[in-house]
Amino acid sequence: MAQFGFENDIQSILKLDMPILNAPMARWQRKASSSNTSSLNGLSPGKPTNVSLSSSKTPSKTPGKSKKTPSKIGGDRFIPTRNSKQMDVANFLLTKENEPLDANTAGSTLESQKAWSVSLNGYNIEDAKILHFGGKPLNAPEGYQNNLKVLYSQGSTPASTKKTRYISSTPDRILDAPDLRNDFYLNLLDWGSHNILAVALHNSVYLWDATKGDIILLMRMEREEDYICSLSWTKDGSYLAVGTSDCKVQLWDVENQKRLRSMSSHTARVGSLSWNDHILSSGSRSGHIHHHDVRVADHHIFTLTTHTQEVCGLQWSPDGRYLASGGNDNLVCVWPRVHEGSAGNDTQFVNCWSEHQGAVKALAWCPWQSNILASGGGTSDRHIRIWNVNSGSCISSLDTQSQVSSLVFAPNYKELVSAHGYAHNNVVIWKYPSFSKVAELNGHEDRVLSVILSPDGSTIASVAGDETIRLWKSFELDPVKKKAKEKLTKSTSSGMHQSIR
Predict the structure, then answer these.
(1) CB-based contact 359:287 (threshold 8 Å)
(2) What is the model's pTM?
(3) What is the pLDDT of residues 57-81, one digit of tens each?
């Protein structure tokens, strides 16, 4: 019997649905009873109580110290005091501050908000802000989930990205150019300092006065089979050099419409010309470059013989120190200035680069950096390359995906203009030196053969195989810059006048 009684006691203990009367008090019960006893003085231990954790306060004094912690208005900077009233105010500010205010009630609303803040918090909440937005944030779009992403991702637009300049995609004027030779290697367009545009149409040279709109036939070759290969104005715009297919270089007085002289020295057509004061440089299909001193009877004073094929690009630097030449042999050469009294042949170039994989006709010197030269390659190359003449290195290179036929720097906005043949047949404006594309000027129906800049730098003229010349006003200065430039020019001229007096 005793055995059965022991088993019954074991089974009764193992039953989970019966309370354990003699078990020790649980840990959470001991902790709760001790905290209730210590914190709730005056209440009977057996009376049930509901104590909220948010009602407990941090002791106002640090144990062992008699000094109080200094307090700032609005609570501690890193551990702010947030009670229910402050959360209500914060919720109100988040939901209501983006709503538009009526102009008539805006002042009274701000005063009422200040009064509510003082009455609820004991201080003005504007005075307790650590961070404050200078401008009003934008509202999130309707249905947007994360308003804070819109609120904190807003940034002010940099001044450099503000676009006040408009570049028209259509030409300002289109001129007909019938019988224009569609030859990549020729230079048939030039714009003089007197605002006169010269163009070669087969065996004739025409002048178009951009100021008055008058058209003048300057000259026509005697034989019908001969043709004009190149044109180049002097710096003062009074004389025009004309290279022809019969190996001659003619010099014309434009004002009197009179030929001053005809200079013979080449053995092939003269496809490129460039002036440096009284020195006229001419490039021929034979690969030779001749320097002519137009002041003397024996005009041929120098010959450069590095190129093995036609010299189709020729440009003197603005300061007159270097001559850049480009040829159908894919070479770009830089030559030193011809010294007074020197004569003969010279092959000592300053630099000669062979990185291009196509004919180099496009050459342009940077007007504001005299040691920078830009060159462009033909269909097999399609690259624009920027060279530092002093170091002899290639600074940058850009693949334009199109034949580069001409280059010119636009100083008004410090940009580079490139003319293209196959496959785009357009004109592109690039920001220099970043080579970010500013604009594309489309409209020509055939390859663009050449581009030239107007004397004031505001307009470029492009001539193409579609027998048209298009004028693009892409670089006009805004009125503020134009007025400042005119003021500077006026002050400089007046200073020179005073010095002369």
Answers:
(1) no
(2) 0.66
(3) 444 455 544 445 555 455 555 555 5
